[in-house]
Amino acid sequence: MKRILTWIFILSFSLTAARAQDDATQQQINKLTGQIQDALDAQALQAKRITALEKEISELHDKSNGSGANPDDLQKLADQVQELAKKQQADNDLILKEIGKLGKVGGSSSSPVHKSTPSVTTNAAAGGSTTGGKENGYEYKVAAGDNLKIIAKAYRDQGIKVTSEQILKANPGLNPNTLKVGQKIFIPAPAQ
After folding, report:
1. Phi, psi (5° rounding) for residue 188?
2. Residue 49 backbone dihedrals phi, psi, to 5 degrees
3. Predicted pLDDT of residue 119
């Protein structure tokens, strides 16, 4: 009897274990089935997207192979370009206007040299030459915002090769840190 009970116990235990294993297997099968379904749904969505893109590409291809660009599209593009050009011009005008205001308020440091051509003079009274003789050059009237570097650059821009050091040497006693508006300084002409 003990043997029969033992066999019954072993058999019931085996059935319970097999049933638990079947449940775990079924859960795995259900999980895999769900993942397969998700993959199939994603594949169907991708197929729809591909079809839509193929249609769009075909339409664009037909447009480009036709008579070229659509005249209405070209006119819209031309109008947009003209509008952008107008806005750019308005911005340029505004910038120039603001620069002009800044020049009036803070002094015009961007173009310190007067627009007239410098006049050639001889600097003998100020002892302009380091050797004590006469020196050819130009007389310059200091404007607001000027310093020796700006003045020298403005003359170089006009083709007169001069440095701020040369201007300082040609004007003994000139303090470059205290230039006054209206003050006349001598700009030496380059040696020929």
Report:
1. -70, 140
2. -65, -45
3. 44
Looking at the predicted structure, is the pLDDT value of residue 185 above 90?
yes
Sheet architecture: strand order including 184-188: 120-122, 136-141, 184-188
Q: Which two tokens stand for residue 106?
A: 């803070």
For residue 19, how many C-alpha atoms fall within 13 Å in the half-sphere facing its CB? 6
Which one, of 152, 147, 145, lies nearest residue 167 by Cα? 152
The rounded distance, in Å, linking the Cα atoms of 166 and 174 is 12
Q: What is the value of pTM for the model shown?
A: 0.35
Sequence length of the chain is 192
Q: Please say whether the beta carbons of 143 and 181 come within 8 A.
A: yes
Using an 8 Å Cβ cutoff, are 127 and 145 in contact?
Answer: no
For residue 106, the model assigns a pLDDT of 54
- For residues 183 and 142, is the Cβ–Cβ distance under 8 A? yes
